[in-house]
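Batch manifest line 175
LIGAND: FE2/S2 (inorganic) cluster
JOB: complex structure
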Amino acid sequence: MESPGAATRADRVRALVAAHRGDRGALLPILHRIQEEFGYIDADDVPVLAAELNISRADVHGVVTFYTDFRSEPAGRTVVRLCRAEACQAVGAERLIAYAEQSLGVALGQTTPDGAVTLEQVFCLGNCALGPSGQVDGQLHGRLTPARLDALLAASRAAAPAAYEVTTSGKTVNS
Ligand code: FES
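JOB STATUS: finished
ARTIFACT:
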């Protein structure tokens, strides 16, 4: 049996489907709307979408997992996306990613256990001449180094001090 919250979400998903009914290729815009509203595509959304759009659950799941922009779980309060495309790789993107993974204690695609930071990969941000490039909460940054990344995360923490409890090295600094 669905919880009241789940029922509300399912109803909202059905309403979003209804708003796009008849559109060609409706699944993608519907998924974007769900993610805008809820922050991620929940596993429970998949059967609702499949039933409403008369497609298989596997088809819905395939689209959600194919596009890296779609999340299957809530993102952290800060989202860091680091570019792994060729130009950034040539100027040290992999070293930067290795540092970020090690300092945050998560792999690409994961969120720190306290929900503070989600670390993601991206393939080209259109800032190739200034790599390694990345985004912190949607803001584009070039010539990233470990120190600059730490500074950006610190600034993000300062913008929402109550929301953060750990530094990138895992030490508690605020609660
Ligand atoms: S390759 Fe990284 S921004 Fe284009």
